[in-house]
Task: structure prediction
Amino acid sequence: MLEALQFDFIQNALIAGLVASIICGIMGTLVVVNRIVFLSGGIAHAAYGGVGLAFYLKWPYLPCTMGFSFFAAMIMALVSHTAKHRADTIIGVIWAIGMAFGIIMIDITPGYNADLMSYLFGSILTVTRNDIYIMLIIALLMIILARLFYKELLAMSYDEEFAKTRGVPVVKIYFGLIGMLAITIVLLIQIVGLILVIALLTIPPFIAEKYVKSLFQMMVVSGLIGAVFTVTGLLISYQYNLTSGASIIMVSGIAFIFSLILDRVRIILRF
Result:
């Protein structure tokens, strides 16, 4: 891997993966503790509608997809907050419609067919310095917002009713969280892919949650675990000439399965 660092595209991929790990460490922790993993998956898949619309109308990818995804995310947030008993069904429907709409828009775009696989697994090896600068801005924004609203996010994440009695604007914080999640997902999908975004949002926090005592620690440890997955996946992909995004996902998946086995062993040993 050391000799590979002489190449600019490897350096960019490594930096992008590490920054993505920081972003997903913060947002993923909030996703896991608030139990909105399915909702985040819905936003990610619904974003395909924005991708297809952008190609069909020949509009810039980022504002079009971000606007579409933000609108879909707000609908999902409203549904999950007001109709919790039907939220999973409605989110699943929006998820399916958004993705189908995007694929149809691309199908009917004259003379052009986008490679949807590139949005599934991303193109982390083609990340540019400008992409990295955008990701760094997002990471800095996430850190600032998490710091400013840490107490409110902590209260809402672990005891929503208590947060309301303490005067925390739970509804506004929740919708703000979903909005930031939508923006984060859209910005990272083009770079690291839909599947890798979901993997980094969910697996590191799931593993970290067992070994930490605070929300802040969970964010930090999640980011570190995500960074380990990224570096290991890139190393494997370079060594064996494999797809980098898929390699990172496989490393994450193996670690996830291993953590489940370890949990089971610990439970057995206690008895």
Remarks:
- Residues 7 and 13 are 10 Å apart (CA to CA).
